[in-house]
């Protein structure tokens, strides 16, 4: 089968590899019908050392079940399914508490043990707990939005949920990528009164306004902090949703959070050490939340929202390419010529 591998920074290729097979009775084999490139995939695209052991890429997909292990329940061959970007059993104590990305028997796609989703076929461990059925006859117009439920929209929702967004709150979203725009949409769904989007790419911030942003701040650093403080009468934002993962974004976040507020991070942090002392969090009684989104906890409630037209997060996709052109998908996103790209095997 054909699958996408990264061989080093800027070097993404589609190569022929053996098709996956069932390795455990809890596995499923899914034929991927729609996948995409994630902003987090670009971290390796920027910095991965050249290697003779390339990394399989992709963790967001919709597909059709082709094989099932003997212990998989609730699913059938031929079902159309969405997969969260992490697999989980959906039964352990952490899953039951809503944190499926910490599942005791779970794990991640995009590694040599499991493979990546930018491919023709995918082995899904813990299939019964991971895969979520959608109607096989679903109107194709809904598929991009349903694909966002595998990661990007529900990662934005997780940011808002962990930030305790609610009616009357002022929310600032840092980052105008697909996750940041999804966080805007989620904050709107949760009733935020004022939503400030920090981003400087007009085509993206225009979509942010469509999703519910009431203000856009293009400035960064101290200038951006000053602008948000001006928009909040000098008080700061009740909730800051950080969807970038770089230190300057975190510094902006603690610069604009109001006393007693919450910073919720879902941008994969590219740092381990960060300020938490008096001048950043402690002095403001500010809280720090967020993490890898347990989208499996939210996906079943979100599917009807998509199918009844309540939300249309698939608008973050602005390019659609065949798997054979996946390298171009990475280039488009890396060069900011596309916000998020669908990849079709």
UniProtKB/TrEMBL annotation:
Its cofactor is Zn(2+). InterPro entries: ADH-like_C (IPR013149), ADH-like_N (IPR013154), ADH_Zn_CS (IPR002328), ER (IPR020843), GroES-like_sf (IPR011032), NAD(P)-bd_dom_sf (IPR036291). Residues 10-343 form the Enoyl reductase (ER) domain. It comes from Neomicrococcus aestuarii. SUPFAM superfamilies: GroES-like, NAD(P)-binding Rossmann-fold domains. Keywords: Metal-binding, Oxidoreductase, Zinc. Gene3D superfamilies: Medium-chain alcohol dehydrogenases, catalytic domain, NAD(P)-binding Rossmann-like Domain. Belongs to the zinc-containing alcohol dehydrogenase family. It comes from the Bacteria. GO terms for molecular function: oxidoreductase activity; zinc ion binding. This is Threonine dehydrogenase-like Zn-dependent dehydrogenase. SMART domains: PKS_ER.
């Amino acid at each position: 089968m054909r699958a996408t591998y990264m061989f080093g920074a800027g070097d993404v290729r589609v190569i022929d590899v053996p098709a996956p097979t069932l390795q455990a009775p809890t596995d499923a084999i899914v034929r991927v019908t729609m996948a995409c490139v994630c902003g987090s995939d670009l971290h390796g695209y920027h910095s991965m050392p050249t290697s003779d052991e390339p990394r399989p890429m992709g963790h967001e997909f919709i597909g059709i079940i082709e094989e099932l292990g003997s212990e998989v329940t609730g699913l059938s061959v031929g079902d159309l399914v969405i997969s969260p970007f992490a697999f989980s059993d959906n039964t352990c104590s952490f899953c039951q508490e809503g944190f499926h990305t910490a599942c005791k028997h779970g794990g991640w796609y995009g590694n040599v043990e499991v493979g990546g989703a930018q491919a023709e076929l995918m082995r899904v461990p813990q299939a019964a707990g991971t895969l979520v059925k959608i109607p096989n006859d679903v109107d194709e117009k809904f598929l991009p939005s349903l694909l966002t439920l595998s990661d990007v929209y529900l990662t934005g929702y997780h940011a808002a949920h962990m930030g305790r967004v609610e009616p009357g709150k002022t929310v600032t979203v840092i980052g105008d990528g697909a996750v940041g725009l999804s966080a805007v949409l989620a904050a709107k769904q949760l009733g935020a009164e004022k939503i400030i989007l920090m981003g400087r790419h007009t085509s993206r911030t225009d979509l942010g306004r469509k999703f519910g942003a009431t203000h856009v701040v293009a400035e960064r650093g101290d200038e951006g902090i000053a602008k948000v403080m001006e928009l909040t009468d000098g008080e700061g934002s009740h909730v800051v949703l950080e969807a970038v993962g770089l230190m300057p974004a975190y510094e902006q976040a603690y610069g604009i959070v109001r006393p007693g507020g919450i910073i919720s991070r879902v941008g994969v942090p590219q740092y381990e050490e960060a300020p938490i002392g008096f001048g950043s969090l402690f002095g403001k009684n500010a809280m720090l939340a967020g993490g890898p989104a347990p989208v499996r906890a939210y996906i079943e409630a979100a599917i009807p929202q998509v199918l009844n037209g309540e939300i249309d997060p698939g608008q973050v996709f602005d390019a659609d390419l065949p798997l054979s052109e996946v390298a171009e998908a990475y280039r488009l996103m890396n060069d900011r010529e596309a916000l998020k790209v669908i990849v079709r095997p």
